[in-house]
Amino acid sequence: MYHALQQVLDSQLLQNGPMVVFLWQNAPGWPVLSVSPNLQSLLGQSPLAFTSGALIYSDQIHPEDRVRVLKEVKRASEERTCNAFTHAPYRYRHTHGHYLWLKDTTTIVRDEEGAITHYVGYLFDITPEITMQQETRFLKERLDLAMQATMDGLWDWNIQSGEVYFSPQWKAMLGFADEELGNTLDTWKERVHPDDLSAVHHALEAHLHRKTQQYRSEHRMRCKNGHYRWVLDRGVVVERDDTGKALRMIGTHADIEQRKHEQHELEKSRRRFMEISQISTDWIWEIDAQGRYTFVSERVVEVLGYAPEEMLGKSPLVFMSSQEAARVGERFMEHFAKHTPFRDLENINLHRDGHSVILQTSAMPIFEEDGSFTGYRGTDRDVTKER
After folding, report:
1. What is the pTM of this model?
2. What is the pLDDT of residues 182-201, one digit of tens each?
3. Nearest Cα to 200, choosing from 229, 225, 234, 251?
């Protein structure tokens, strides 16, 4: 076997290939008996430097990797049934001083009695692959830090393999430690609320097939404690093959539980307000900071004969005579300027059919959370029959 391998190494078969082959003798210092001729072009050293003993192979291995590599050789050699083994990737010093990452699979050659005579190493330069993995890991770490700052979770989906990277923040949002959840699509799918799953799937498929520019979904996710939490899930396909098939997709999870709760409470308040306005004998309204109606209850039809939509965007003064509008407008402006409430301000409006309607108007100013004035909310009571 030794002579046959020597002939292959001495031939031109390996001259331009991506694999370097070493033939070591099983002796102290691992004397190199032969090396494929492409060593110079791939790893930067001359084959003669090793076969002459000027260079020792183990000395070219990075100091931080050397002990491990030697242990891997020793462990494999001590197993009498082992005929081949593969090292974990290690760093190898190029003749210019920088290090390359190598993938090394070694075959053990034994004599008839089972004693090791030689080792044959098949070496590949995987530096680009390792560098890309390191850069990807570095970017993910930076993204994780950014996501922690924004409290959003990151996910990265390899669509072909089904593997999904979920950042620690993504998992923490659901109450899990990093090691408690697997990195598969099922990890996510099994936690989507059953009532939301169909809509989520539709939104995802639409983006995968280029029907939308971005995947976006608001849905509930099951937490570790069994409760459901609302999240905003957004993502984009970042890699497709030549046919347009999606290969990779990345995105984020944002916790919107508080916003959903506030929306729910707001909707409850809106329904309550609408119910009160429908049963109230008063006409309820809102105007903006420019004094224009933004809401008018149905009661106005009975009071002034106008449908609510006919009054939206108009000033209350439009529904008064010019003389009355001037008088009431002056009173209104006094309160508008100071943003003060007022009560039982009497004014005369004109019904759609032309007759006069005497109203008593009461209102409170409306302020946003930041203190900015946005208008008034009030009521009008028809007191015509009392006058």
Report:
1. 0.44
2. 989 999 999 999 999 999 99
3. 234
